[in-house]
């Protein structure tokens, strides 16, 4: 959460007029990182790649106009959270209404006053930041503090689509605690809860690169999303997870596998095709996980998607 609050905001200006881009950039220079695009099409690509907090959007552009761009930004799960502010010479009530109907959060008419632009964008950034914090709270698992399954489903699917478009390999890991029923039976449910928190912490140690995240998939099962990870690389992750879990040395007492709590890991990796879904990755990882459980637990298996 603190990471979210510390991040510098990103603003994207989409306008075909270089002078307007230059003026807006200098007005907003102290509000965050400023990016710009000179067409709706380029703006959509940049929004998808850089996830801006606020987009300043011109209405009249050659090719795709501001309304169409706004509608597409709001339809795409990867860009729909951005606040969109139209900055335009059109000032009729109908234009303003059309912008709001397309999903815009605010509308600034040209000629504009620099101080007013500054204040309105600052407002949008504050609202966006507050809504990000609330959304992130709603996306977290109450017990372990890692992301919840709903977040995994949403962001996992976004990653599958992104990796398909970029032609890169994505990996998904499913991690299941071994003989956890026996652990609960022996130590009680409260100790079981503490152990799930410990396990989540160990798994979080495996995610270091941007876009990687751990989610609680179900009771004693976790999922990890690993962007830009190939089948060849993913076995190292499986190895790391199993050995770091053992090193944590949480005494089990009721497991035929080991004195300490262990996990079984199923991993699926590969470049998604046009029709590949997150469900497909999860099914493949689940099959690998099942094989590990059948083979004695405390290990990992990788499958290619
Ligand atoms: N303490 C605690 N236990 C949980 C939680 N969610 C699920 N469990 C327990 O996890 C256990 C899962 O048991 P099983 O599905 O039989 O699996 P297992 O005993 O881990 O055996 P394998 O997965 O085959 O190695 C059950 O006893 C659940 O009650 C939770 O939030 N807290």
From TrEMBL:
<dbReference type="InterPro" id="IPR011006">
    <property type="entry name" value="CheY-like_superfamily"/>
</dbReference>
<dbReference type="GO" id="GO:0043709">
    <property type="term" value="P:cell adhesion involved in single-species biofilm formation"/>
</dbReference>
<dbReference type="GO" id="GO:0005886">
    <property type="term" value="C:plasma membrane"/>
</dbReference>
<dbReference type="InterPro" id="IPR000160">
    <property type="entry name" value="GGDEF_dom"/>
</dbReference>
<dbReference type="InterPro" id="IPR050469">
    <property type="entry name" value="Diguanylate_Cyclase"/>
</dbReference>
<dbReference type="Pfam" id="PF00072">
    <property type="entry name" value="Response_reg"/>
</dbReference>
<dbReference type="Pfam" id="PF00990">
    <property type="entry name" value="GGDEF"/>
</dbReference>
<feature type="domain" description="Response regulatory">
    <location>
        <begin position="10"/>
        <end position="125"/>
    </location>
</feature>
<dbReference type="InterPro" id="IPR029787">
    <property type="entry name" value="Nucleotide_cyclase"/>
</dbReference>
<keyword id="KW-0597">Phosphoprotein</keyword>
<dbReference type="InterPro" id="IPR001789">
    <property type="entry name" value="Sig_transdc_resp-reg_receiver"/>
</dbReference>
<protein>
    <recommendedName>
        <fullName>diguanylate cyclase</fullName>
        <ecNumber>2.7.7.65</ecNumber>
    </recommendedName>
</protein>
<feature type="modified residue" description="4-aspartylphosphate">
    <location>
        <position position="58"/>
    </location>
</feature>
<dbReference type="InterPro" id="IPR043128">
    <property type="entry name" value="Rev_trsase/Diguanyl_cyclase"/>
</dbReference>
<dbReference type="GO" id="GO:0000160">
    <property type="term" value="P:phosphorelay signal transduction system"/>
</dbReference>
<dbReference type="GO" id="GO:0052621">
    <property type="term" value="F:diguanylate cyclase activity"/>
</dbReference>
<dbReference type="GO" id="GO:1902201">
    <property type="term" value="P:negative regulation of bacterial-type flagellum-dependent cell motility"/>
</dbReference>
<feature type="domain" description="GGDEF">
    <location>
        <begin position="168"/>
        <end position="305"/>
    </location>
</feature>
């Amino acid at each position: 959460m603190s990471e979210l609050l510390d991040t510098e905001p990103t603003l994207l200006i989409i306008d075909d007029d270089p002078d307007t881009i230059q003026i807006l950039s200098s007005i907003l220079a102290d509000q965050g990182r400023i990016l710009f695009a000179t067409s709706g099409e380029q703006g959509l690509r940049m929004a998808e790649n850089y996830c801006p907090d606020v987009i300043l959007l011109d209405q009249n552009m050659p090719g795709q106009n501001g309304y169409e761009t706004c509608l597409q930004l709001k339809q795409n799960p990867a860009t729909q959270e951005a606040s969109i502010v139209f900055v335009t010479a059109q000032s009729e009530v109908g234009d303003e209404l059309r912008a709001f109907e397309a999903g815009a959060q605010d509308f600034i008419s040209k000629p504009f006053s620099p101080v007013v632009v500054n204040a309105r964008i600052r407002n949008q950034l504050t609202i966006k930041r507050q809504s990000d914090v609330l959304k992130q709270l709603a996306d977290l698992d109450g017990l372990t503090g890692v992301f919840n399954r709903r977040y995994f489903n949403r962001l996992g699917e976004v990653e599958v689509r992104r990796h398909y478009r970029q032609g890169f390999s994505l990996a998904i890991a499913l991690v299941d605690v071994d003989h956890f029923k026996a652990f609960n039976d022996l130590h009680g449910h409260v100790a079981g809860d503490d152990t799930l928190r410990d396990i989540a912490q160990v798994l979080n140690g495996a995610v270091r690169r941007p876009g990687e995240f751990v989610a609680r998939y179900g009771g004693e099962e976790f999922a990890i999303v690993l962007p830009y990870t190939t089948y060849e690389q993913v076995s190292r992750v499986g190895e790391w997870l199993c050995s770091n879990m053992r090193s944590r040395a949480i005494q089990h007492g009721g497991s035929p596998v080991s004195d300490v709590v262990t996990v079984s890991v199923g991993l699926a990796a590969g470049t998604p095709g046009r029709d590949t879904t997150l469900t497909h990755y999860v099914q493949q990882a689940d099959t690998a996980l099942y094989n590990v459980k059948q083979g004695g637990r405390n290990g990992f298996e990788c499958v290619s998607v």
